[in-house]
Amino acid sequence: MQDRPDSLVILSRNVFPATGTDSFDGFVATRANRIVAVGPRKDADPYVSSATRVFDAGKRTVLPGMTDNHTFFTGWALLSLGCDLSREHDVSSALAALLAYERTLDDGQPLFAHGWNAESFLADDSFDEDAILDATFPDRPVVAFSDGRDCCWMNRAARERYGFTPQECYAEKIWRMMRDYLADPRMRSLYRLYMRMLNSRGITQIKEMAFDDYYGFVDVMEAMEKSDELTVRVSMMSQPVGRPMDLEHGRRMSERLQGPFLSFGGFNRMTDRSIASGMAELKEPYLDRPNCCCGEPVEWDLIESELMEADREGFRYSLHCQGDAAVAHVVGLYERCARGSDGRLLRRHAITDVELSDPKDLVRLGELGGICEVYPQIQSLDRKADLLEMVERKVGLERFGHYWQRRQMWDAGCVVVGDTDLPLMLPSIGESIYCGCGGHFDDGDTARLENMLTVPEMLLSWTANGAYDCCSEDRLGTLEPGKLADIVVLERDVLHADPATVRDVNAVLTVSDGRVVFDRMG
Q1: What are phi and psi of 516, to 5 degrees?
Q2: Residue 49 φ/ψ, nearest 5 degrees
Q3: Rounded CA gap, 203 and 185, in Å?
Q4: In 3D, which of 54, 29, 58 has the Cα closest to residue 487?
Q5: 493: DSSP letter
Q6: Cα distance between residue 58 and residue 78, in whole Å
Q7: Residues 6 or more apart in contact with residue 177 via CB below 8 angstroms
C-alpha cells in the first residue's frame, strides 16, 4: 500500500457512527488511512486547521463505508463485455458490428458481446439468426448476451465449447466461459470500472462470489493490490460449480491473500431456487402443483458433507436459500456446527436471500447468532400486483405473511446484512430504505409494512453488520478512532426523511483507505 498523504475532515449535522448511538452534529477526521477523531462539531477546529482537505456536508448523512455482502463481478462483466450491440436492432447490422469487432481479436480468441436486442431480432423474420451466426463464424465461439443477461445469441462453436444453451445462460451454467473472458487482458480495466461503480454508491467492501478457483483472476487482483489500484476491499468466497468444494484451494488462498484489500472467507453454494420457478423447497406443496414441494431436488447430502468439512477446517460456508423448507434444513445443519460458549456459530455461516421462512426457524437461527444476507431492494424489481399474482398462484396469500421477514430476523437476534446479488441489482442505500424501510415496490405501492426495518437499522445492516459478515469489524464498519478510513457522505439526510422520497439517494463522497475515490460534493 502506498502512503496516504491526505488529512481529511468531514463536517456534518448528521454523523451516523454505526456504533449503536444516535447520529449527531459533528465531524470525522482522518490521517493517512486511519480515522483519528470522531466527535462533536465544537471539537473539530484543531483537526480542521491541520487538514489537507475539509468537506462541509451540511445536513447530509455521513456514515462508514458500506459493504455489499453478495456480489458477482463475473456477472456484472457481462453487461459490458466485448462488442456493444445495444445500437443494433436487426441481424444484418449486428453481424457487421461483430465482424468489425472480430478484427480486434487474436486468432482463436472467443468473441463476446453485450446489449443484444433479443426482441428486435426475434421480430425480424427475414433471417434465421442462428443459422447465419453459424455460417458467419463457423469456428470462433460467439456469445452475445441480452441486456438482462437472461438469454443470449450464440453459435454452435460456443455451445460445443461452453456446454450451455441460450435458455440456460445463468451464472452457474456459464462457468466454462468464465475461463475465457476472465483471461482477457481487458478485464483489469473493466474491474476498475466495477470498483468505480461501487464507490459511487458508497461501497468500499464486498463479499465476492468467485466461482471455483476464479480461473486465474486472483492473479490479476493481486497485481492490482500490489500496484495500489484497489479501492474496494474484497472478501472472496469460492462457489463450487465446475467441481466440488476445494479445501486445498481454500487453504492456499487463506495463506496467500493477507493484504490490506484481499482476503479469503470460505465457500458459498446454492440450495434451492426461486418460488416463481417452482424450484424453491417448501414445507407445504405449491398450489399449482399440489403434489410438489420442490421442482428440483436439492443436493442436501453434498451440502451437508461440504459444510461439515468446511466448519472443521475453520472456513465459512454460506448457503443461498429461498423456500421455508430449505431455510429450516440449513438452520438444522448449522445447529450441528462448532459453537462458542455463548452458543453462537464460530464460523459465522450465513443464509442468503431467505425469500420465504418460518418464524420459528428464524428464532433458531438467531440463537446461533446466524447471519441473514438479505436483498433490501428486491421489491424494486416488481410491481406489487405482479408479485402478489405470482404469490397467490404459487403459495397463496396467507404464506405471503412469511415473505422477506427482516423485522422478525432482526428481533430474533439474527445479524441482518444488506446485499444485492449484483448484478441482479446495483447497491443503492436510497432504494434499500425505499423498499426495506418504506415497503415500496417499483410502482410505489406498498406491502408488509409491519416487517420493515427502521432507517438506522438499515444503515447498520450495510455498515457495522456488513463488516461483521466479512470478519472485518475490528477495522471497518464504524466511525471510531483507529478504524480504517472508509467513509461515505450521502446525497441527503436519510435519517430524517420519508423513505418514499429517498429512492435515488446514493453517495456524494466516498473515502476508501483514507483517499477520496469518488467526489460529487461540488
Answers
A1: -75, 115
A2: -65, -25
A3: 25
A4: 29
A5: -
A6: 39
A7: 110, 143, 158, 161, 162, 164
Distance between terminal CA atoms of the chain? 29
Q: Is 396 helix (H, G, I), strand (E, B) or coil?
A: coil
In contact, 328 and 361? CB cutoff 8 Å: yes
Q: Give Cα separations from 87 to 114, 121, 155, 166 (angstroms).
A: 11, 12, 21, 21
Cell digits of residue 230: 484497489
Residue 477 CA, chain-centre distance (Å), reads 17
Pairing relationship of beta strands 515-519 and 507-512 according to DSSP bridges: antiparallel
The answer to pTM > 0.90 is yes
CATH of the domain spanning 266-469: 3.20.20.140
Candidates 3.30.930.10, 3.40.50.2000, 3.40.50.720, 3.10.310.70; correct CATH number of 83-181?
3.10.310.70
212 neighbors 236 (Cβ within 8 angstroms): no
Q: Which three cell numbers stand for residue 362?
A: 428464524
The pLDDT tens digits along the chain (522 residues) read 578 999 999 999 999 999 999 999 999 999 999 999 999 999 999 999 999 999 999 999 999 999 999 999 999 999 999 999 999 988 889 999 999 999 999 998 999 999 998 887 766 666 677 888 999 999 999 999 998 888 899 999 999 999 999 888 888 889 999 999 999 999 999 999 999 999 999 999 999 999 999 999 999 999 999 999 999 999 999 999 999 999 999 999 999 999 999 999 999 999 999 999 999 999 999 999 999 999 999 999 999 999 999 999 999 999 999 999 999 999 999 999 999 999 999 999 999 999 999 999 999 999 999 999 999 999 999 999 999 999 999 999 999 999 999 999 999 999 999 999 999 999 999 999 999 999 999 999 999 999 999 999 999 999 999 999 999 999 999 999 999 999 999 999 999 999 999 999 999 999 999 999 999 997
Q: Are strands 83-84 and 111-116 parallel, antiparallel or unpaired?
A: parallel
Q: How far apart, in whole angstroms, are the C-alpha atoms of residue 118 and residue 288?
A: 30
Q: Say which CATH superfamily domain 8-65+480-519 falls into.
A: Urease, subunit C, domain 1 (2.30.40.10)
Domain boundaries, the chain: 8-65+480-519, 83-181, 266-469
* Neighbour tally for 123: CB within 10 Å: 10
Amino acid at 328: A
| HSE, side-chain direction, 13 A CA sphere, residue 395 | 28
| Phi-psi label, residue 259: left if phi above 0, alpha if psi -120 to 50, beta otherwise | beta
Query: C-alpha grid cell for residue 290?
Result: 399440489
Question: Which amino acid belongs to residue 364?
Answer: R
- Any idea what DSSP says for residue 410? H
Amino acid at position 370, single letter:
G
Q: CA dist 226 to 219, 256, 258, 260, 512, Å? A: 11, 13, 12, 10, 16
Residue 352 three-state SS: strand
Beta bridge partners of 205: 67, 233
CB-side exposure of 56: number of CA atoms within 13 Å? 4
